[in-house]
Design goal:
88 residues; alpha+beta; 2 helices; 33% helix
């Protein structure tokens, strides 16, 4: 079971890395913060806070594939309530 979770964690973080790379390919765009968010319907989004070279920030929402929902339920939301908002 633990090996399965390790593989799933690795796969999830690889997916996150790839999702971030797709959205920061613009010159001068950097990732400021990312976090998963649970939606009221039970789905999950990856929230990306990006900062451009001119210091403007933007937030992007990327749907997290369903295969990672159980992992997020077990790992992340034990210590992070679904309605918890990050400071700006």
């Amino acid at each position: 079971m633990e090996e399965y979770l390790d593989d799933l964690r690795e796969s999830f973080f690889t997916w996150c890395d790839n999702a971030v790379q797709v959205h920061i390919e613009g010159e001068g765009t950097m990732l400021k913060r990312w976090r998963p968010r649970r939606n009221p319907d039970g789905s999950y989004d990856l929230i990306l806070k990006l900062i451009a070279c001119d210091e403007t920030t933007s937030m992007l929402t990327v749907p997290i594939p369903e295969e990672y929902h159980d992992l997020l339920e077990r790992e992340y939301f034990i210590n992070h309530p679904p309605d918890e908002e990050e400071e700006s």
